[in-house]
Design brief:
The chain has 275 residues and is of the alpha/beta class. It contains eight helices and twelve strands.
């Protein structure tokens, strides 16, 4: 820009646009510090993703170290799982609730092997596998299982032929699947109530240990790996031979002459019997 004032010419420099924010040859694209807005956003995104990946990797390594150390201390901190709680978890028949309750006792629910009649869980701290076997189906709306279970109760349990029933085959198949998955050398804790106590006595073998409550143990062979408990007021287990079956009378926390209440699992709610 030139100004003529008499004989003197003053030359002023042309104004320079700001370098921090200019528009390049592409319309509506802003250059900031030498980067287009698109390139800058990509660079920022890459930085964030890299930070997240590094952070996740570091946290994984640290949590792995923490978990490895925790394995040695956790068994002393977790609660003991009682026979009553184990049976109650089996009867929940709800995977979310079962998983939540088992977690309190250091067990992880095996969703692959768990069904309405059988609950399988393992402890990453002790290596023990628990196999919970429910008693007879109480809900007549579940007609198929209800009919099978109560037909067995009427015709097979009193005659000692439960081992030939479809229900026993279901219990056996579920047990063998668990054994195949976790290995024969794993310690299994078999738990059963009422009709299921028969299956526990029949199936427990090797390193297995078994606990049952109010089992209909009529004409069953003694299994030294299994301890059978009963409520003295229970009519279902009253025909079991205490000498042969090692049945131990348990004083219930609720004194009752109601046969249904006496046969239920609440009679050992406060009894210190642990899986």
């Amino acid at each position: 820009m030139v100004f003529n004032n008499f004989s003197t010419q003053v030359v002023l420099p042309e104004p320079v646009p700001p370098q921090t924010k200019v528009v390049d040859d592409v319309p509506n694209r802003v250059l900031i510090a030498g980067y287009s807005s698109r390139r800058l956003s990509i660079k920022v995104s890459h930085t964030i993703v890299t930070s997240v990946i590094l952070g996740f990797g570091l946290s994984t390594i640290l949590s792995g170290i923490f978990f490895e150390r925790l394995q040695y201390t956790m068994p002393r901190l977790i609660r003991k799982l009682s026979l009553h709680k184990a049976l109650k978890i089996g009867y929940l028949r709800n995977e979310k609730k079962q998983q939540k309750r088992l977690k309190k006792y250091g067990y992880v629910l095996d969703k692959e092997l768990t069904d309405n009649q059988h609950t399988v869980a393992y402890s990453p701290f002790t290596g023990k596998v628990i196999f919970i076997n429910n008693g007879s189906e109480p809900n007549p709306l579940n007609a198929g299982q209800f009919i099978k279970d109560w037909r067995s109760n009427i015709f097979n349990v009193p005659t000692g032929t439960f081992g030939y029933t479809p229900r026993f085959q279901e219990d056996k198949n579920a047990y063998l699947k668990a054994k195949k998955k976790y290995g024969e050398d794993k310690q299994f804790e078999l738990v059963g109530h009422s009709q299921a106590a028969i299956s526990v006595n029949e199936l427990a073998s090797g390193k297995d240990q078994g606990l049952t409550y109010n089992g209909a143990l009529v004409k069953q062979k003694d299994n030294p790996r299994v301890t059978n408990y009963r409520n003295p007021n229970d009519v279902v287990s009253m025909f079991s031979n205490p000498a042969d079956m090692r049945t131990i009378a348990v004083q219930p926390n609720m004194r009752t002459i109601n046969p249904l209440a006496a046969h239920g699992i609440e009679g050992i709610r406060e009894t210190p019997i642990f899986v």
